[in-house]
Write a structure and sequence with these properties.
Elements (H helix, E strand, L loop, with lengths): L39 E6 L1 H13 L9 H10 L1 E6 L8 H6 L5 E6 L5 H9 L4 E5 L3 E2 L8 E2 L2 H9 L25 E2 L2 E2 L9 H4 L10 E7 L37 E3 L17 H10 L22 E8 L5 E2 H13 L4 E4 L10 H4 L7 H7 L1 H13 L7 E2 L2 E5 L18 E6 L17 E4 L22 E4 L9 E4 L2 H22 L1 E4 H10 L11 E4 L3 H4 L5 E4 L14 H9 L3 E2 L5 E3 L4 E4 L13 E5 L5 E6 L2 E6 L3 E9 L4 E8 L10
Parallel strand pairs: 9-11, 9-13, 10-11, 13-15, 14-20, 15-16, 16-17, 24-30
Antiparallel strand pairs: 1-3, 1-4, 2-3, 5-12, 6-19, 7-8, 18-19, 20-23, 21-22, 25-28, 26-29, 27-28, 29-30
Helix pairs in contact: 7-12, 8-11, 12-15, 13-15
Length: 672
């Protein structure tokens, strides 16, 4: 039976309207009357029917029927006027798309005389239909804004001497990265604990990020022109900036920095009146440029002389435009197809254990419910976790990181609560759980998310309460005149984990080690620092302090969280040290080339200290393929169908034997 589930909120923590960090608040949630599209449905047809539809679309301008009688009878009854493949054709990835079954998903648009649920019942009765899903409206619960950092505060920070870790002037205000335990004290009440951070300072001794690692940020758009983000934004080298054409034929026109899936355009936006700056804030936590003397530091933003990880902008929200199930699924697949290995997702469903009085109808209560209720989303995420990365690269598969949710519920929200992904709870600067965080079942780890209500007794000159207890990062200038400001929520804890995962993959790349994604995911969880010792007594806070100021403090029983904050707080240092002690050495890959085509390989990525080495290649059968140097890369050309062995030698004495396969329709992944 097809079940209907509503998305009530994006876990962006965007409900505070008055000055204050973003998080869910007393502002009433806004729901549309119809939580999914009325006149369209998402249908997964059998592979045979999908092929029939595809053939019909290639032989005429469009297709409204499948060519399969029983299916077409239903299409005629419900008045279908358009069938559109959910995932656009990208020739370079079509075979892996087909092997994953994603080519079988179609958007079915009909005339509206029958509603979506009636149509879903019709389709679910067909043997040629594998699954049916609703195109839900995924909408932020309310408008909101960050707490801007004033220009005066920024100038004062610039004039002060930093702690010596880096020359970024705002690093001393980023307790989430480097916590000395001396920031929030008043008398005998200590609200900051040394090392209640993500242990960046220690981890940076191993790596500060590597530009070969790409993190896809599914969020609002990112301010790509921010001085602290320039250089960390991924670009599509096969696309033309500001072009309206699909220059690389991947199905997405103008996707130079990524893609705006909310508005179906290559133009990334961040300055709409309804934008909160959340996407830019998340990007800054992960990859703002380190050591450039500008603003903030980040987890994996490189150093003054080395670029850090790249952020791919997968915009699923734009101004007051709601996203959809289709847009989110396309963004997930796009991330995998274009080189991202970490999926940063500060969104999800309300917890299945959330208080329905405050949050309306609860979300999914179990993995089984989620898989049955959101099959397109599940298929897209499976595609990412299985097909991102490379069998020949640093990581095979991808890692998806989700916010646990902000409903103070004893269960994380889905999809993050699934066993296959990482779900992140939020903590304050003393390891205690943030007063809003979800916890318990489905929670993987914890990370700093900020806790403004807990720091209610700290007020600045502008009467902003508790902002120092939030997370400081980059913002667009239309949100903050200085370009920086504070936010909080599990949606802020989430990018800390994405950043640490990216930092770990960077270290593995620098060591020329290979890992499967699930290995790194379990390693991240197992190296977390236990915080159960801090789950005793009561925690006092003032709810909605940003809106109404400090009132009578409320109590939070910390014992409820003992053993329920996942495996503990992520520890970047321990994670990177574990990576240094494990993994398999990378080897030069076997090469697959289409007949009369070519493949370019960068050999240095497969050898330790490869950037300082030179290479030569000898091919046994020169009638099958040839090789030539193109700067630091090797260009292999396929001449005729066949297989030949080859040897690559490095200037430090290492040698690898590999094979070159030339066959019609092959690409560099070996797919036909």
């Amino acid at each position: 039976m097809i079940r209907r589930f509503f998305i009530y909120s994006l876990l962006l923590a965007v409900l505070v309207v008055v000055a204050g960090c973003q998080k869910d608040s007393l502002v009433e949630r806004t729901e549309q009357e119809q939580p999914f599209a009325k006149s369209e449905l998402i249908v997964k047809f059998s592979s045979e029917v999908a092929d029939m539809i595809s053939l019909a679309q290639t032989t005429r301008s469009g297709a409204t029927r499948s060519g399969q009688p029983s299916v077409d009878e239903v299409l005629e009854i419900i008045g279908v006027y358009e069938l559109e493949r959910v995932f656009p054709i990208d020739a370079a990835r079509e075979e892996v798309t087909r092997s994953s079954g994603l080519h079988q998903w179609y958007v079915v648009r009909f005339n509206g005389e029958m509603d979506s649920e009636q149509v879903a019942k019709r389709f679910s009765a067909l043997g040629e239909v594998v699954n049916v899903d609703f195109n839900r409206t995924i909408k932020r619960a309310s408008s909101g804004r960050a707490t801007p950092l004033s220009k005066e505060k920024l100038e004062r920070a610039i004039s002060r001497t930093t702690r010596g870790v880096m020359n970024d002037p705002l690093l001393p205000m980023q307790w989430n990265l480097v916590n000395r335990g001396d920031m929030f004290t008043e008398g005998e009440v200590i609200k900051s604990v040394k090392d209640a951070d993500v242990r960046c300072e220690q981890a940076w001794q191993h790596s500060m990020g590597d530009e070969s690692v790409v993190v896809a940020v599914l969020d609002e758009g990112v301010f790509v022109e921010h001085p602290d983000l320039q250089g960390c934004i991924w670009t599509n080298e096969d696309e033309v900036n500001r072009s309206t054409a699909d220059n690389d034929a991947n199905g997405f026109a103008g996707d130079y920095y990524g893609y705006n899936f909310a508005k179906d355009t290559g133009v990334i936006t961040w300055n709409d009146a309804y934008d909160s700056g959340h996407g830019s804030h998340v990007a800054g936590v992960i990859a703002a440029r380190n050591g450039n003397g500008e603003g903030v530091s980040s987890i994996a933003g490189g150093s003054s002389d080395k670029a850090g990880v790249k952020v791919m902008v997968c915009q699923i929200f734009s101004g007051n435009v709601g996203s959809s199930s289709i847009a989110v699924a396309r963004a997930i697949k796009y991330a995998a197809d274009n080189g991202a290995v970490v999926l940063q997702c500060s969104w999800g469903y309300v917890s299945g254990c959330a208080n329905e009085y405050d949050w309306g109808e609860a979300g999914f209560a179990s993995q089984e419910e989620w898989e049955a209720g959101a099959p397109l989303e599940k298929d897209a995420l499976d595609y990412f976790t299985h097909n991102a990365g490379s069998a020949n690269g640093t990581i095979e598969g991808g890692i998806a990181v989700f916010a646990a949710g902000n409903e103070s519920a004893p269960q994380a929200g889905y999809p993050g609560a699934s066993d296959d992904y990482i779900s992140v709870a939020a903590t304050a600067a003393d390891f205690t759980p943030a007063v809003y965080t979800n916890y318990g079942k489905g929670t993987s780890v914890a990370a700093p998310g900020g806790d403004q209500d807990y720091y209610y007794d700290y007020v600045d000159d502008e009467h902003n309460y508790g902002e120092v207890g939030c997370i400081l990062s980059t913002l667009p200038y239309n949100v903050s005149e200085s370009g920086y400001g504070y936010m909080e929520g599990t949606s802020m804890a989430c990018p800390h984990v994405s950043g640490v995962v990216a930092l770990g993959i960077s270290y593995a790349a620098e060591l020329r080690r290979h890992f499967k994604a699930e290995e790194l995911q379990q390693m991240l969880i197992s190296t977390a620092t236990s915080i159960d010792a801090y789950m005793t007594g009561d925690k006092y806070y003032c709810r909605y302090v940003a809106d109404i100021g400090p009132q009578q403090p409320m109590q939070l029983n910390l014992s409820l969280f003992k053993g329920n904050m996942g495996s503990g707080q992520i520890n970047a240092d321990a994670f990177l040290r574990a990576i240094g002690e494990s993994g398999a050495p990378m080897r030069f890959p076997n090469i697959y080339i289409d007949e009369q085509s070519s493949v370019v390989i960068a050999p240095h990525i497969y050898f330790e200290d490869g950037a300082s080495l030179s290479f030569d290649v000898s091919i046994t059968d020169g009638s099958v393929a040839t090789v030539e140097h193109q700067g630091s890369k090797l260009l292999f050309r396929g001449l005729r169908q066949g297989i030949t062995s080859a040897v690559i030698n490095s200037s430090d004495g290492k040698s690898y034997i590999f094979t070159i396969t030339v066959r019609k329709g092959a690409n560099d992944n070996g797919w036909l």
